[in-house]
Amino acid sequence: MERPEDDVSWSEIADRLKIIGVVVGLLIVAELFYRWLTYPNDSFAIYQEFLTWAWYNTHSLIFGSESVSYVSRDGPATILQFTHASFVGSSMDALEVTDECAGIHEIAFVSFMIWMTPGVSNRLKLRGIFVMAGVLSVLNLVRLVVLYPLAVNGCVDNPGMYGCWAPMWEFHQFMLDIGFLLVIVIGWTAWYLAVGGPAKTKQSGDLNLRFALPSRVSQRQPLTPALLVVLIMAGIFATSPLYTLVLDEEAKQQQLKAEGCEEIVSAYCAEEVRQWEDISGKAWRHLLISGILASFATMKLHWPNESEEEE
What we know:
Elements: H1 10-37, H2 45-63, E1 68-70, E2 79-82, E3 95-96, H3 104-116, H4 122-145, H5 147-156, H6 166-194, H7 197-203, H8 207-210, E4 216-219, H9 225-246, H10 249-260, H11 267-298, E5 299-302
Antiparallel strand pairs: 1-2, 2-3, 4-5
Helix pairs in contact: 1-3, 3-4, 3-6, 4-6, 5-6, 9-11, 10-11
């Protein structure tokens, strides 16, 4: 019995499953790498402070400056305290913009999804990444701004009751668990259809080759102005962690304290070790990022059957 021409062979099905497995595996590896990269506290301290500043000023503009204030502490200025008559006695905690709340995780994830999409030109991918990064950043700021009215609505009817601000946390958790995932899936799908992704993927040839290992590595010659800018940025980015690991006296003192706390079990020593792990962890991770940027600027990967993609 002959197989109809339109039927899909088992080998083709196996190839498709292999590609799906590779994509899922790459996403898992990227997720694990991101979590390792952001293991130290306040991994994106500068952006966290900027987002907190934007949140504070947007909140003040809408609800009044008397309803929010900064909480001073040692470290990045990333903690805000809400104020309202109905919150008095409710034991409402201050709110901190941690590295997990900054939205970088979601931006990195959707950027990786877009960059792995086969058949689409790099220029269209970069446009898609910039658009999705902008959309997710704005939505994240909106998410932070609406926390206050949600808390007020929950406490107005039950002023001073512990937990009256629960609707704020329920919304916060929903966005982290489901909301942003829906935005990423819908956003990637809309971008993929808008750039004609299905047709481009179909015309891109053997997808197995696109998920193969590079066939060789070569040095970029000559470096374009854009790549020179990336290389300079990598060098600048490396100066701070190098200074921290080699010359920073405060970092050396913290290292000595941590080393002196080895094999000592106490709250004080646990904090000293944690602080040194944060300092050294951030420095080594920043050096790794600068090395990746420098490698991207100076080296080029060549893939099997490499061809220029149409825009």
